[in-house]
Amino acid sequence: xASTADIRNGLCIxxxxxxxxxxxxxxxxxxxxxxFVRTKLKSLTNGKVLDNTFSAGHKIEEVRVETHEFQFLYAxxxxxxxxxxxxxxxxxxxxxxxxxxxxxxxxxTVKVIINAETEAPLSVDMPASVVLEVTYAExxxxxxxxxxxxxxxxxxxxxxxxxxxxxxxGDKIKIDTASGAYMERVKE
Length: 188
Description:
Layout: E1 2-3, E2 12-15, E3 18-28, E4 36-43, E5 49-55, E6 59-62, E7 65-76, E8 79-84, E9 90-94, E10 109-115, E11 121-125, E12 129-137, E13 150-155, E14 160-164, E15 172-176, E16 182-186
Antiparallel strand pairs: 1-6, 2-3, 2-6, 3-4, 4-5, 7-8, 7-10, 8-9, 10-11, 12-13, 12-15, 13-14, 15-16
């Protein structure tokens, strides 16, 4: 058993007969009353996110998990196929447990969190950012800008991302996987 002092991002816990991963947390010590921890929990079975508040010292049941590196091979409908980088064992996961499946490029490496007791995959952690090539972008018109003007662009995985007007087809861009937002242009 763990307590609220052990709460950190990425911790997997049992709560309300389900397994949740803590995505965000904030320790709050109000001037009046007891301290508490405000958390944002993501269900690893159905992907729903809920806000929850634990009082200070509350006991939480931690789930023992293992993290393994897997390489993304290909998508087949709603199933995404991965290969373990050390044992070459292949697994197929539903796209619901992926955070940003539209940004997953074939051959990229991800971390798969597996429940140590049941050997069942719980979630897939993407890298913080990915570099993808722009396959389609409307041409930007000179002088057609105010501040921070953006246009939609398609990247090689088929995802649509809002990018600044100076981005053209063939450019490589870095995308934040948490928000799906453009970060910067990458020069190679």
